[in-house]
Amino acid sequence: MNAFAGDNILNHNESLASQVLSGSTTASNAGRTVTVTLGGKTYTGLVGKDGSWSINIPTADLQALPQGSLNISATLTDSAGHSTTTQLGINVKTVLPDLTLNAFCG
Questions:
Q1: Most buried residue among 6, 9, 53, 105 by CB atoms closer than 10 A?
Q2: What mean pLDDT comes out for the span 56-80?
Q3: Beta bridge partners of 11
Q4: Distances in Å between the alpha carbon of 88 and those of 6, 57, 62?
Q5: How far apart are CA 14 and CA 52, in angstroms?
Q6: What domains can be seen in the chain, in order of their start residue?
Q7: What sequence ranges are listed for the domain Bacterial Ig-like (predicted)?
């Protein structure tokens, strides 16, 4: 799997737009389905002729992710039913910090 959101950290601004999760395998897997799990939701995509795959993660799903460390898992299953799973650790930091202003005088 390639880095998610560029650096495996999903920040507030990145959560305001859908993000693409991508990766690659061998070209012999072309046409097979990749199943990705993130935050309890499952997404599917197809492996292209060049072995690459990509899956769009919708904005609403990104904004529903809990803060902190999460794993993304991607599973590829071959025609014989054998599967391979890889994981990618990400960090969700979408909550903006609080800003407090103190009284200037008195």
A1: 53
A2: 95
A3: 93
A4: 13, 15, 16
A5: 23
A6: 4-92 (2.60.40.10)
A7: 21-92
Q: CA-to-CA distance for 45 and 57, rounded, in angstroms?
A: 11
Q: How many Cα atoms occupy the beta-carbon half-sphere of 76 within 13 Å?
A: 23
Contacts for 6 with CB less than 8 Å, ≥ 6 apart: 14
Helix H or strand E encompassing 59: helix 59-63
User: What 8-state DSSP symbol labels residue 7?
Assistant: T
What tens digit of pLDDT does each residue of 9-18 get? 999 999 999 9
Grade residue 90 by pLDDT with cuts at 50, 70 and 90.
Answer: very high
| pTM, to two decimals | 0.85
